[in-house]
Amino acid sequence: MQIDSKCVAVEQIGDVALIKVNNAPVNALSRAVRQGLMLAMDAALANPDVAAIVISSELALFSAGADISEFAGGNLEPGLPQVLNHIESSVKPVIAAVNGSAFGGGLELALSCHYRLSFAGNKVGLPEVHLGILPGAGGTQRLPRLADAKTALDMIVSGAPTPVTALPGVFDEIVGSAAELYDAVFAFTKKAIAQGPRPVSAVNLSFDGDTPALFAGYAEQVKAKTKGFFAPAMCVEAVKAAYQLPFAEGLDEEANLFMQCMKTPQARAQQHFFFAERAAGHVPGLNKEAQLRDIKKVAIIGAGTMGGGIAMNFANAGIPVTMLEIKQEALDKGLALIRRNYENSAKKGKLTQEQVEQRMALLTGATDYQDLSDVDLVIEAVFEKMSVKKEVFTALDKVCKPGAILASNTSTLDINEIAECTSRPSDVIGLHFFSPANVMKLLEIVRAEQTSDDVIKTCMKLAKTIRKVGVLVGVCFGFVGNRMIEVYGREANRLMLEGATPEQVDRVIMQLGMPMGPFTMGDMAGLDIGYFVRQSRKAFIEHDPSYCVVADVLVEAGRVGLKVGKGAYLYEPGDRKPISDPEVIEIAARKAKELGIEQRQISDQEILERCIYPLINEGADILQEKIAQRASDIDVIYVYGYGFPVFRGGPMQYADETGLSHILERMRHYQSSLGEYGKHWFTPSNLLIELVEQNKTFASLNK
Known about the structure:
This protein is α/β, with parallel strands linked by helices. The chain has an 8-stranded mixed β-sheet, with helices on both faces. Strands 1-2-3-4-6-9 form a 6-stranded mixed β-sheet, with helices on both faces.
């Protein structure tokens, strides 16, 4: 039998038909693959010389699941459920040789087979919940029939990968390595032929005993832990259907719940973000001939909290790091803090002691710039002041070898100005890590005017090496993330002057889905950080005497946040829980009176609109100025850097979902209703106006 299609190939080996999927890069179950599987199954079933069928992959992974791009519409026939039902109904035994990771539809494909074999070290999962949906090709009905209810719920609701060794009911045999798998599979086919087909759908489940209580308790936990998300609760309902309904009816209920999920704004947002994250890694217009630079050794200037966190990223990736401090005492303190962080991870079981020592061995200290003469990349992480940054880059320019990349971790300062103090501006770039740098996934990669394409390419690739999501941005105050958050913080502070309390503002923002509100965030970061930034930007804000005036009073009184036990809130020693402080309300009332601002009751809706809509408006200006390449890049920055809820897709996706015409109308409302303050700070972006006039969305700019 020599059936061969573009994506699915069939080879007869003895009395076994070996069907292999070959759809690089991840064996997505596209329409062509589904058609190929149907044809291959039909051919194997029609061939009298075939006694058993094996389904596997030509690639190193089994399948990453559905082709998400097909969700937008078009001809989906044959649908994946149809293909999998066809496989399960085979009168000849079908064995899945799961030779690599199987996720989503890939695992559902394996579950539709009569037998499954894999190897120790492999992982499988049903991650559809991360796309705002649930497994829609029988996964919620077949998995519970092979694994216990708790395991099935955990896998489907969390979407997390699970080792095959933890799924003995799912896999009939697990061999030691991938290299041994095919020999084991072909030996197993004799047993499968003797036993015949064993459809998972034939397994009966009953909703009795402890099962109802298990589902009730699980549903309550999911409700508490996944606020804002729609799909997790539907996942529980779908698995419950496997216990309450016959298989065919359970599939119908799964399909019904799947379509309910697909129609939600959460699913649209989560699927938008799936593509946004992948798009962020692609930089159009770079010279294709530009070669990547080799990054084998890195230096970090500054061994403080940020410098230490940055260093850990490289040590975790196996890249040697030299940390430089002028004083040995500061260097020793920084290295000790890193060791403490690693030791804490070891105590939690995240690292072995051997791994701790391996990573620490990659970290060395230095107090002399001459020790950096052989590094391939140096990242400056010193005090956020231009004169200090220039001093560092001047020194680096003298000692670093030709071709070394000189990067600044600045969060607001002009990379072009920093580059000008070197003789090699084409080698200078911004690498803005977010705190804590060893935890946060986002890396803003800041392209200066003269940054070369090979430096940009190298840094984008390096972000993946150190397990960050790199997003390329241009030079302006605060780049993308901090430029937009400045607007958000400004409005939160102004609302307090007008009569809102920090607790009310924070509550409204958390109801949107943010992990904390602006006042809690300010206290956590340190109110002095924003204060120093404002001191350096007096020309920008001098027209507005109300600008963050309460925050300034707090800082000048020594109330800089959590680290001293008081900021916008009070804190008990060793406790991060904010406690309201009437004194802050009194300060706000006093400053409002001095400024002639009348205090009033402010609705939750006004707080939401005034904090979030100007942030979106600033994003529109950033796009118009080409500081960000795409609206979706802004969404990636905000989800990974600032905790914007992924079930809303990021601020620009949230704007599209809310309606740009509504946002424009509300911006104009506050522009006219807030006096001189509104006239200055609520001017709608020209891009926002243009999109509304053309009936377009921010998403349309991504194409």
